Amino acid sequence: MLRRLLISTLELVAVLFLVSLGVFLLLSLVPGDPAVALLGEGRTPQEYEAMREQLGLNQPLLSRYGDWLGGVLTGDLGTSLVPPQTEVLDRILSALPVSLELAVLGLVMALVIALPLAMWSAYHQGGRADRVISAATFGLLSMPSFLLGIVLIAVLVNALGIFPRNEWVRLGDGIGGNLQHAFLPALTIALMEAAMFTRILRNDLVTTLNEDYILAARARGMSPLRIMVSDALRPSSFSLVTILGLSIGRLVGSTVIVEYLFALPGMGKLVIDAANQGNYPVVQGAVLVIALIYVASNRLIDGSYGYLDPRTRRARA
Amino acid sequence: MTAPTTPLLVVDDLRTVFHTARGAVRAVDGVSFTVARGETLGLVGESGSGKSVLGRTVMGLIATGATTTVTGSVLLDGQDVHGLSRGRRRRLWGPEVAMVFQDPMTSLNPVKRVGTHLTETLRRHLDCSRAEARDRAVDLLRQVGIPEPARRLRQYPHELSGGMRQRVVIAIALACDPRLLIADEPTTALDVTVQQQILDLLGSLVEERSMAMVLVSHDLGAVAGRTDRVQVMYAGRTVESGRTRDVFAAPRHPYTEALLASIPQLDAPPHTVLRAIEGTPPDMARPPAGCRFAPRCAVRHDDCAGAMPALVPLSMPLSVGSPAASYDREVACHHPTTSAAFAAPGGPDGR
């Protein structure tokens, strides 16, 4: 047990190191100059050069990475190069809750939509309901997320006025107002994810429903709903749970389009804005946190396989 | 044993047709039989002869649906199984009729504890508390000969051996005291040494509870000593039926005869070639005309491919010393073999 914990900690450190190094090197390749972002356009090259010198941007790449890494190891993520020149940690701590809330809410909503649809679809395999659900999810998957967001805004905000249009309300400032604002962006995310979840789960359910133990459960007089939930769902949920783990990590960092559409101050927006300005401490810090969430959520998923299938327990111990 | 006048199970002209891309597959094609209370019937035939589908159709697990048509009738204790609503039919599965499946490796849910299989069945059909269900489950496992039943309840199926699992499957089937047990090849997936134990267990449980049983098997040895009557199936139809003793002593259908002849004999000299039946059962999407066994029959006549032989009652031969009224023997063959032409191997037991 202790050994396993040690190994997974080492793995985590290695992943975080490689990710931060990779992003750092990539960042040096993309355009975006903090000096320009700081001073604005139309200054002399000398002024820009002086600013770069002042920010330490003229140091060799690896020594800058070393400085940054040294800071991280002592718990200092640095400060933003571009105004507001606040602590990177503060920037992340203000953006992360928005993204996390969006991701969690979106995934919960996606599951609430996907589970019944997948079960219904699998139960009526090949029937009309199955074909309609299959076509609908396929349509959703082929639709770019911004289009779905725009449609939702046009219908629910502009035409029907069900949802407010104004600024994001933080969770701390009242849960009612917060949920009212989070609902639409979360729904946008949820619909896309739900489409994928439905298809994956439906296919695994169809396979499971052909198993002998499902026939045996029927022969014991169990109702179809009971068989679905209590016999078929768990053995069918491996792919779904795996995808779910990947989704958490992905949604925290890359819901940029949805964040822009709904003017949300989340992680995606933070990273993209910082990357455009070459504001590497912010990018580095944010990527580190996203990678951490990615690894953590997948560890959690790995741990859940033992619950899903008792046969894997002994082998993993 | 009390003998109520009506049989427990009356199957009349049952047909199961699967509508597939290749056309209609007539897996069960007009089968009739009855099972009296407490009686044991063996359904015998090769793989693909429709025995398993017949068992499932009798139970109502296979019923008319989008791709399946079931006609004929199944009366279980006077209730028309296929005429009931799905909900009512489900209520029969457990207290009236239960099934033991072929492969205990796949018929238990791998993610469910042994105990859950039992208790959920008990609580579904009987009005009992969690604790009562658990006590009953322990009791059931003990009855099927599982040591340390309380500990086994908490285990998962993969932690048990094949024989133990099949005992669990039997315990589940017995949970709600069914009047009819359908055992669908209950020993096929097991080790030879375990097969005997499971068959003996089934036999003694059936006797203790005066339960009726339909034992579906391709193994004539399994059916021989343990059934009251036997019905031989070929290509979805009954070719011969009668009391097990009579059928095995003097088979009248060439198929039954060939099946008996293909049982390996212990007392045969070494390197004796096994007598297998040539060919395979017909494709049930395109069954041959006339007698379906004719293409493989060793004693085929010219008229065999013409008309389908009907199942007709036989008169009692002198060699069998049973009263004429209870002879109860039928065969579907244009030219039934005479028992003199064939000496049943190994005596009346067929072994």
Automatic annotation (TrEMBL), chain A:
Its main location: membrane. One of its GO terms (biological process) is transmembrane transport. The chain crosses the membrane at residues 12-30, 102-123, 135-162, 182-201, 238-262, 282-301. Gene3D superfamilies: MetI-like. Keywords: Cell membrane, Membrane, Transmembrane, Transmembrane helix, Transport. CDD domains: TM_PBP2 (cd06261). It is a multi-pass membrane protein. One of its GO terms (cellular component) is plasma membrane. It is found in: Cell membrane. Residues 96-301 form the ABC transmembrane type-1 domain. InterPro entries: BPD_transp_1_N, MetI-like, MetI-like_sf. Belongs to the binding-protein-dependent transport system permease family. This is ABC transporter permease.
Automatic annotation (TrEMBL), chain B:
Its main location: membrane. It is found in: Cell membrane. InterPro entries: AAA+_ATPase, ABC_Ni/Peptide_Import, ABC_transporter-like_ATP-bd, ABC_transporter-like_CS, Oligopep_ABC_C, P-loop_NTPase. Keywords: ATP-binding, Cell membrane, Membrane, Nucleotide-binding, Transport. One of its GO terms (molecular function) is ATP hydrolysis activity. PANTHER family: DIPEPTIDE TRANSPORT ATP-BINDING PROTEIN DPPD, OLIGOPEPTIDE TRANSPORT ATP-BINDING PROTEIN APPD. This is ABC transporter ATP-binding protein.
